[in-house]
Amino acid sequence: MNKKKKQIIEAAQTLFIKKGFSATPIQDILDTANISKGTFYNYFSSKIECLMAILSFIKDEVIDDRQQLALGKSPSDRDIFVKQIAARFHIDKKHNLMALFASLGSSDTAHQELKEFLNQQYLEEVTWMAERICDVFGDKKQKYAYDNAVTCFGTIHLTSKILMDIGKTEIPIEETINFALRQIEQTNVYPPFLQEDYFLPYHQKKNVAEKDIKNSLQQTLTDLDRLIEELENNKLTYYHRFLQEQLKTDDPDLLLMESVINSYQHALQYTELEDKGKYIKMLFVQLMEEKK
C-alpha cells in the first residue's frame, strides 16, 4: 500500500475508534496524519470511502494470514481450518474493530454504499467458509456447504456473545470454533436449503491471471447457452452472443462490453439466472482490473 495512503488510514482508524465516526471531521484526520486536504481527496472521495479502505486493509490482512497458515499444509487439515477462522477474530480484535463499528451511528450504517460494502465482505466470508468446509470434510458436504457455513458462523458469533455476556471471556475463540464445527459434522438429513448459485458473485478470485478470468467468463457464458435460449428474450440473446463473440477475439472491446454487460445483467433480473448475471459482471470487472 502507498505510504501516504496507509498514513491516512491509520490516522482515521485511530480517530474513528477514539471519537466516533460521525464525530470525527475530515480536518481532524488531516491534522493527525499531517497532510493537506488535497492529499486526502487524492486518495478518498469521502470519509465513508476512507472507512471502507480501513475495512479492506483489515480484510487483506486476514486473507494473507490465512494463506500463511495454509502454506505446506493439507487443505483437509482441520486444525489449520480452525486457526484460519480464528485469524479473522484475532485480527479484528487487534484493530479494535468492535469499537470501530460501535462508533457508527444509525445514519452511518444506513448509508447505502457502506451497507453494500459490508454485505459484500460478509457474504465473501460465508463463501470462503463453505469452500473450506468442503476441503476439510470432503465431498459429502458439497451439497450442504453453504447451509453449514451459515450455521457455523451463526454458532460462533452467538456463542461468543453469550460467553461475553456471562463473563466467560477467558475461553479461547478456537474452542468456540471447534464447538461450532462439531455441530455441522453430523450427517445432513434434509435437502440443502442454500444453493451454491446464490453465492456465485461472492467467490474471491485473488491473483487470477487475465487469461484465466477470460476463460472463466467464456465458459460461464457457454454453459448458459441453452438456458438463455429458453428465456425467449431477443435482446438478452443478442447481448449473450455479442459477449461471446467479443471474448473470442484477442483484444475485446472492453468499453463496449461494459455497456452490454450492464444491459445483460439488467435483463437477467427477476429470472432464475439473476445470480449468474451477477457472477458474470464480477468476472468482467476482474478482467477490466487485469487490463489496467
From TrEMBL:
<protein>
    <submittedName>
        <fullName>TetR/AcrR family transcriptional regulator</fullName>
    </submittedName>
</protein>
<keyword id="KW-0678">Repressor</keyword>
<feature type="DNA-binding region" description="H-T-H motif">
    <location>
        <begin position="25"/>
        <end position="44"/>
    </location>
</feature>
<dbReference type="Pfam" id="PF00440">
    <property type="entry name" value="TetR_N"/>
</dbReference>
<dbReference type="InterPro" id="IPR009057">
    <property type="entry name" value="Homeodomain-like_sf"/>
</dbReference>
<feature type="domain" description="HTH tetR-type">
    <location>
        <begin position="2"/>
        <end position="62"/>
    </location>
</feature>
<dbReference type="InterPro" id="IPR050624">
    <property type="entry name" value="HTH-type_Tx_Regulator"/>
</dbReference>
<keyword id="KW-0238">DNA-binding</keyword>
<dbReference type="InterPro" id="IPR001647">
    <property type="entry name" value="HTH_TetR"/>
</dbReference>
